[in-house]
């Protein structure tokens, strides 16, 4: 592909290693709200590998919960516990700073689109010295106005496209042409397909998902390798 007009990065399992923090916080949430119902570790990891939202994860791990219970009690409890205990377990993957700094120096617009709560992403970036490397307006997650859960591409069309237009970057009418999505789960792949036929997918082998059966354009072993994809 030509030099991308926009690079969209996933967060969990792509920029940051968050598996321990997510697993630990899910366990803490169940211990707090339903101590007799402890989901197996394998079930939790299965949800993480699919890139599902925390709402979908709770619905799958505890089918007896209503949507109202999840939205009003479980998700807020999870996020409070994550902020108090989970952030200490979050670490950027090797090469994260190098990649973000290099893209910024090259002037390539870079966004983060995630099913995670956007505040948790911003805190993790700031805590690890990466906050200034991604435009705050281009960090999109749950609670961002206009955000939709991946693989729906609403976050692209309703948040990123207008934000980039304000910066003089026009992505309209290109069927995703010039967009490179970097991720590690099936939700990232299907998100790219929903952006448009012209969007390309770069799969991170070090992440949480299983590549088998998913058609992707590029595969990398590290975040530094993403620059090689950009330069092809």
From TrEMBL:
InterPro entries assigned to the protein according to its UniProt record, in alphabetical order: HAD-like_hydrolase_sf (IPR050155), HAD-like_sf (IPR036412), HAD_2 (IPR041492), HAD_sf (IPR023214), PGP-like_dom2 (IPR023198)
Ranges annotated as spanning the membrane: none
GO molecular function term, any single one: phosphoglycolate phosphatase activity
Gene3D superfamilies listed in its UniProt record: HAD superfamily/HAD-like (3.40.50.1000), Putative phosphatase, domain 2 (1.10.150.240)
GO terms classed as biological process: DNA repair
Entry-linked Pfam families: HAD_2
PANTHER family in the cross-refs: PHOSPHOGLYCOLATE PHOSPHATASE
Entry protein name: HAD-like domain-containing protein
Organism expressing this protein natively: Aspergillus avenaceus
Lineage, uppermost ranks: Eukaryota, Fungi, Dikarya, Ascomycota, Pezizomycotina
């Amino acid at each position: 592909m030509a030099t991308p007009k926009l690079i969209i990065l996933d967060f969990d399992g792509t920029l940051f290693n968050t598996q321990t923090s997510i697993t630990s916080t899910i366990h803490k949430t169940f211990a707090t709200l339903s101590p007799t119902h402890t989901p197996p570790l394998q079930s939790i990891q299965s949800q993480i590998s699919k890139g599902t939202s925390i709402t979908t994860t709770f619905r799958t791990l505890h089918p007896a919960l209503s949507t109202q219970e999840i939205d009003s009690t479980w998700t807020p409890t999870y996020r409070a516990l994550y902020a108090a205990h989970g952030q200490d377990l979050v670490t950027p993957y090797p090469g994260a700073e190098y990649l973000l700094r290099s893209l910024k120096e090259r002037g390539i617009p870079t966004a983060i689109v995630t099913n995670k709560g956007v505040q948790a992403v911003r805190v993790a970036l700031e805590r690890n010295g990466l906050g200034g490397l991604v435009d705050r307006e281009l960090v999109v997650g749950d609670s961002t106005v206009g955000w939709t859960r991946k693989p729906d591409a609403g976050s692209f069309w309703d948040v990123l496209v207008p934000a980039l237009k304000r910066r003089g970057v026009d992505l309209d009418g290109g069927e995703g042409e010039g967009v490179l999505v970097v991720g590690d789960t099936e939700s990232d792949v299907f998100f790219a397909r929903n952006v448009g036929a012209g969007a390309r997918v770069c799969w991170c082998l070090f992440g949480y998902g299983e590549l088998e059966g998913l058609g992707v354009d590029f595969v990398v072993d590290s975040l530094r390798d993403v620059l090689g994809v950009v330069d092809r």
